[in-house]
Amino acid sequence: MSARAAIVTGAAAGIGRATAERLGRDEWRVVGIDRSRATVEGVGMLAGDAGDASVLETAVAMCEGRLDALVCSAGVPPSGPWDSSEHWDEVIAVDLSAAYEALRVCWPALVAARGSAVLVGSIVGAVEGSLRSPAYAAAKAGLEGLARSFAVIGAPDGVRVNVVAPGAIDTDFDERLLPADERTDVPLGRMGTADEVAAVIGFLVGRDASYVTGAVWTVDGGRTILSGADVNRR
C-alpha cells in the first residue's frame, strides 16, 4: 500500500507542527501549509494562506488527489480589543472560515480515500467565554458545529470529521498567566504539550478511530471539570 497522505494547516509551529512531525514519523506523506516559509523535517511545506482555495488545491495536487487526512490547525490567538470589527473579521476568517474552505476544497479527495478530518478547536468558546476576544470564542465554538455538520455530510461516504479542543498548551500561542508546571487551574497541575495534542489527533485520523465521528475530544488536563471554588482550595 502507498503511504497515507495528509494535509496539515498551520504546520510551521505549535500543535500543527507537532502533528505534521508525528504523522511523518508514522510514515504518512505530509503536506504542510503555513504563511511562513519554515521548513519541517519530513514534511513538504507549502507557503500560503490556509484559507486560500488555490493554495489548498495545490496541496491536494501534491497528495496526488487522494487525501487520507486533513488537519486544520492554522489559527490566530485570542487578543483584542473585543469591540474591534477588524479583529472580529480577521479571527473569524482565519479560525473558522479557513477550516470551512479547507473542508470544501479537500472534500472530493477525502471522499476518494474515505479519509478523516480533525479541526483544532479550544475549550474557549464551547465551554468558556473570552474576556479579550469574543471573536475567538465564537470561531472555536463554530468549529464544533462545522465538524458535526460535515460528519453528517461525510458519513455515507465513510468520511469522519472530529474536533480536538485543547486547554492550556505550552506553545507560543498561549498567554502565560502562570508557570507552565504550576497551573493551579488545571487538575494535572501543568500545561499540556503540543505533542500530547498531536497524539490525540494522530489517533483520530488513524484506523483505530474508525467508529469515531462528530466528536469533540477535550485535551485540557481536566481544566474544564474543575470548579472555581476548587481552584481556590488547591
Report on this model:
With 234 residues, this protein is an alpha/beta fold. Helices cover 40% and strands 15% of the residues. The protein contains 7 helices and 7 strands; from the N terminus they run βαββαβαβααβαβα. Strand 1, helix 1 and strand 2 form a beta-alpha-beta unit. The radius of gyration is 17 Å and the shape is globular. The mean pLDDT is 91.
Number of strands: 7
Strand order of the biggest β-sheet: 3-2-1-4-5-6-7
Shape: globular
- What string gives the helices and strands in order? EHEEHEHEHHEHEH
Averaged pLDDT, please? Answer: 91
Distance between the amino and carboxyl termini? 52 Å
In angstroms, what is the radius of gyration?
Answer: 17 Å
Helix content: 40-55%
Secondary-structure-derived class: alpha/beta
Produce the secondary structure layout.
Layout: E1 5-9, H1 14-25, E2 29-34, E3 43-47, H2 53-62, E4 69-72, H3 85-113, E5 116-120, H4 123-126, H5 134-154, E6 160-166, H6 194-205, E7 216-219, H7 228-233
Parallel strand pairs: 1-2, 1-4, 2-3, 4-5, 5-6, 6-7
Helix pairs in contact: 1-6, 2-3, 3-5
Main attributes of the structure:
234 residues, 7 helices
Can you describe this structure in just a few lines?
With 234 residues, the protein is α/β, with parallel strands linked by helices. The chain is 40% helix and 15% strand. Helix 1 links the parallel strand 1 (5-9) and strand 2.
